[in-house]
Amino acid sequence: MRFFGLCAAVTFAATTFILPVSAQTQPPAAPLTAQTAAGGTLRATPPDSFVYQPAAEVKALSQWPDRKTHSKVVVDHENYFVEYVTRGDSGNNAETHGHWYDYIHVLDGEGTVTYGGTQDGARDVGNAEIRGGTINGAKTIPLHSGDRLVLPPGLPHLFTATSGNTFTYLIFKHKH
Fold first, then answer.
1. What is the mean pLDDT of residues 14-34?
2. Which CATH architecture has domain 33-175?
3. Alpha carbon of 92 to those of 74, 112, 114, 152: distances in Å?
4. N or C: which end of the chain has fewer CB within 10 A?
5. C-alpha distance across the termini of the chain, in Å
6. Alpha-carbon distance 129 to 74, whole Å?
């Protein structure tokens, strides 16, 4: 008799509490977005499969003849993306990322990064991404091919190529 009572209680609990919850569907989440270095918007995509790109294709992703800032996102997911960026010697803006780590490997050319201090006169362009203004009280260091940097969230920074040149880097952005 106890066995049948226990079975009835388990069946009642399962049909009353567990099944209705498991049958409910969650509304699809709104796609998350991020800003590229050039101000474009990214959307999350499905997992990547194997990718091979010969050097000539990679070079085409990262080199432009006009000496301006350009970027090309090659991997784009909810919590990370990978981007090739080429910076010129003018028109670059100071920036601070509220939620993103930047892991950077300089591939070609020479430039500088100004980092730290305070970013004054900037604007929030959404998602805690701060652009423009000036960086005060910062340090500036030269960058060369092969250098690696890690910029944590909240660190103001500004990349600029040396006069008359460009420099290119690969950036892995990870959401904090």
1. 45
2. Sandwich (2.60)
3. 22, 11, 11, 20
4. N
5. 56
6. 21
Residue 176 tokens read as 């904090």
Q: CA quadruple 141, 142, 147, 151: dihedral positive or negative?
A: positive
Cα 137 from Cα 117, distance rounded (Å): 4
CA angle, 117 as apex, 40 and 169 as ends, to 5°?
40
Residue 151 has pLDDT above 70, yes or no: yes
Q: SS3 string of 114-172?
A: EECCEEECCEECCCCEEECCEEECCEEEEEECCCEEEECCCCCEEEEECCCCCEEEEEE
Paired with 95 in beta bridges are 131, 157
Q: Is 30:44 a contact under the CB 8 Å cutoff?
A: no
**pTM given for the model:** 0.70
Can you give the residue ranges of every domain in the chain? 33-175
CA 81 to chain centre: 5
Helix, strand, coil percent values for the chain (each to nearest 5)? 15, 45, 40
The tokens for 168 are 């290119």
Confidence (pLDDT) at 85: 93
